[in-house]
Design brief:
Elements (H helix, E strand, L loop, with lengths): L3 E8 L5 H10 L13 E3 L9 E5 L8 H10 L2 E7 L3 H17 L6 E6 L10 H14 L3 E6 L8 H13 L6 E2 L4 E2 L1 H14 L9 H12 L5 H14 L4 E2 L2 E2 L1 H13 L3 H10 L10 H4 L11 E3 L1 H14 L6 E2 L1 H7 L25 E2 H14 L1 H11 L10 E3 L3 H7 L6 E8 L5 H8 L15 E9 L2 E9 L1 H9 L2 H4 L4 E7 L5 H11 L7 E6 L14 H7 L6 E2 L10 H10 L15 H15 L2 H12 L7 H18 L1
Parallel strand pairs: 1-3, 1-4, 4-5, 5-6, 15-17, 15-18, 18-19, 19-20
Antiparallel strand pairs: 2-3, 7-8, 9-10, 11-14, 12-13, 16-17
Helix pairs in contact: 9-10, 12-14, 14-15, 23-24, 24-25
């Protein structure tokens, strides 16, 4: 909500603008005041709404025009003052002042202020005043209300500024159509969503317990039994179908807020809307959807026990037929308080575990959210808000893990959700592996992977449930991912997949390893299509020898077609949990070649000069396959330079 309000008073000459401001400040009438009173600042602690208030006076003469236009553009609300004893000053409101604001492109609330009621002869009824004001309000929607006052008595002066404040902080225009006397569709949509969130048992009724929880959340106080009965009686009398089974229906809830607005209690409806994250445009605010949640580099985000429990509860609530799975219509109902299914563009539910009909099981539901939280925790945070996560702060549903490097250094992984990159040539069987992991049947039909594909499932490791996310990228995005250190640092495991029946398949992944720096990632090799004849790979060494030279286990042979999976997903998860056991070249490869060079140069400088250090570095690293060509050339150049200097 806005923390300051800027109120501008405009109107014809001699209507009493400056006198109204002076009467508010002095709390008494001042007969002679200056032409334009200087800007007044009222501190928040003395205002009903606890906001800083700026009151700005203005003149209407030709010499005042530049200042007037500047202040109109800065104002949050404009009070157009007319004099009760000067009908022309009232007539000029719809013919001059209101069109003038529109001409300047200003769209802020307007309060009509009738001053000098002490000069009115006789009494004027509310009906008579309404007859004068309503035609203006119907033509100019920006007019919020009309207040009559007397700066001389003084009478209703503070009310002028109270209504001006309220027009800014609790505006009518976004909520209510004053011409048709109905709630606007955006307001109806927001209130319907709030009703659904408060209807915790999803029976379409707010019972006494749910209404009390709603009251506590919004106003920090429970409803008294007498108040509750009074509300229900009023709604039942005026709103058809507003009360059912001693509870408030959605129609009754909407009627209640319509009455609040019509009776001038807009602050009640706005308090409710703001408690549920809505801004003045009736959209959920960015700060509500995405609360501050900083994730350090090399850490990942997982659901906390509270997050898993909430998602389990909401699954069971919307599983109306209690068959242990969410059908399409049940998912639509669940996501009805959000922009829609967050995974609609991701081949869901093929990305996780579903039953034979395609309905998502609880295991698949929790796995899908585990993957979403790992890959994009902001989406999880936003959807916890959309779905009505009850605890504050909402970030209590998430957990930040320890950095991966710390896990690897300590040799103990504390995380429960792991990310695995699947790399291999086209047609090597990566997609089939992903489908098998998600429990989907094998398909003979081959389709090229054109965009990133992700699946998730749980894996049991010694009685503990872990979630494993498998990703393949397709030829278009594979290079982009593997050359980006920020992306490769996210991977817990990299699996190189080759088709054991294709003679050229292994060369592809061997070239990948040479092209990109990936040896800091725990690694596993998988040979697919083991049901077909084993082909001699066109490579300098065969896959099993290649892996042994790297200090890794030989490729895991699988056949998705025949279901011979060799517990490969368990093996992947085990590698993620014991990363140092699966680093190419051994755990000492966690220290990069560049880091070792720096270390050796420092040590050798202390014992006799840079040349000695370079030779030591060269001898340490110059073994077959240990250096890239570029690195070897660089060291040869340094050694040659140092030798020439010695000569």
């Amino acid at each position: 909500m806005r923390r300051d309000v800027r109120i501008l008073l405009v109107g014809d000459e001699a209507v009493g603008k400056s006198t109204i401001v002076t009467s508010l400040i002095k709390e008494s009438f001042v007969a002679h005041v200056q032409h334009i009173v200087p800007e007044v600042t009222i501190p928040p602690e003395v205002t009903p709404e606890n906001v800083t208030t700026y009151i700005v006076d203005s003149g209407s003469g030709p010499q005042d025009r530049p200042h007037l236009e500047s202040e109109i553009r800065k104002a949050h609300v404009i009070c157009v003052v007319y004099s009760i004893d000067n009908p022309n000053s009232f007539d000029r409101i719809p013919t001059y002042w209101l069109p003038y604001f529109r001409q300047l492109g200003v769209n802020v609330p307007v309060i009509l202020v009738g001053n000098k009621i002490d000069l009115r002869g006789g009494e004027v009824t509310n009906e008579a005043l309404e007859e004068e004001i309503v035609p203006i309000m119907n033509e100019f929607k920006e007019v919020e209300t009309c207040v009559e006052c007397s700066a001389k008595l003084p009478l209703n002066v503070s009310e002028v500024f109270y209504f001006a404040q309220r027009a800014v902080l609790h505006p009518t225009a976004p909520l209510y159509d004053s011409r048709d006397h109905v709630l606007k569709k955006e307001c109806v949509a927001a209130l319907r969503r709030i009703f659904k969130l408060c209807d915790t048992n999803k029976d379409g009724i707010l019972d006494a317990s749910e209404l009390n929880e709603f009251q506590r959340k919004c106003f920090d106080a429970p409803l008294q039994a007498q108040e509750l009965e009074g509300i229900k009686a009023m709604v039942q009398e005026h709103a058809d179908g507003g009360v059912r089974d001693s509870g408030l229906t959605e129609a009754g809830f909407l009627y209640l807020h319509t009455i609040f607005i019509q009776r001038g209690r807009l602050e009640t409806t706005w308090t409710v809307l703001r408690k549920f994250g809505y801004a003045e445009d009736l959209r959920l605010t960015e700060s509500f959807l995405y609360p501050k949640f900083d994730v350090p580099y090399d850490c990942s985000v997982e659901l906390s026990p509270k997050g898993y429990q909430y998602l389990t509860d909401i699954f069971e609530t919307f599983d109306k037929d209690q068959d242990g799975a969410l059908k399409t219509e049940e998912l639509e109902d669940l996501f009805s308080t959000s922009p829609g299914n967050p995974w609609a563009g991701q081949k869901f539910p093929d990305t996780t575990v579903a039953d034979d009909t395609g309905a998502v099981t609880l295991q698949g539901w929790l796995a899908q959210w585990s993957m979403t939280t790992l890959l994009d925790h902001r989406t999880t945070l936003a959807y916890l808000a959309y779905l009505g996560y009850p605890d504050e702060p909402r970030t209590s549903a998430l957990h930040i893990t320890r950095p991966r490097k710390v896990d690897r250094r300590k040799g103990k992984v504390t995380r429960n959700v792991f990310l695995c990159y699947m790399c291999g040539a086209a047609g090597s069987g990566k997609t089939s592996l992903l489908r098998a992991f998600a429990g989907k049947p094998f398909s003979e039909k081959y389709e090229t992977t054109k965009k990133m594909n992700s699946v998730v499932n749980s894996v049991d490791i010694d009685g503990s449930e872990k979630y494993l996310v498998l990703q393949e990228f397709g030829s278009k995005y594979e290079a982009e991912t593997l050359r980006n250190p920020r992306k490769t640092d996210l991977a817990d495991v990299i699996v190189y997949v080759h088709d054991s029946s294709d003679t050229n398949s292994f060369s592809y992944i061997s070239n990948l390893r040479q092209q990109y720096s990936l040896d800091h990632i725990p690694t596993l090799f998988v040979a697919t299509k083991s049901d077909l004849d084993l082909a001699q790979q066109r490579h300098e060494v065969q896959p099993d020898v290649y892996c042994r030279r790297l200090g890794l286990q030989v490729p895991v042979a699988v056949s998705v077609k025949t279901g011979q999976m060799a517990d490969v997903f368990h093996a992947i998860c085990s590698v993620a949990m014991n990363p140092n056991s699966a680093l190419p070249g051994g755990s000492d490869r966690a220290m990069t070649a560049a880091a070792r060079i720096r270390m050796y140069v420092k040590v050798c400088t202390l014992i006799g000069g840079v040349a000695t250090g370079v030779v030591l570095v060269y001898r340490t690293f110059a073994r077959p396959g240990s250096l890239s060509n570029v690195t070897a050339q660089w060291i040869n150049w340094i050694v040659g330079t140092a030798s020439r200097r010695e000569l």
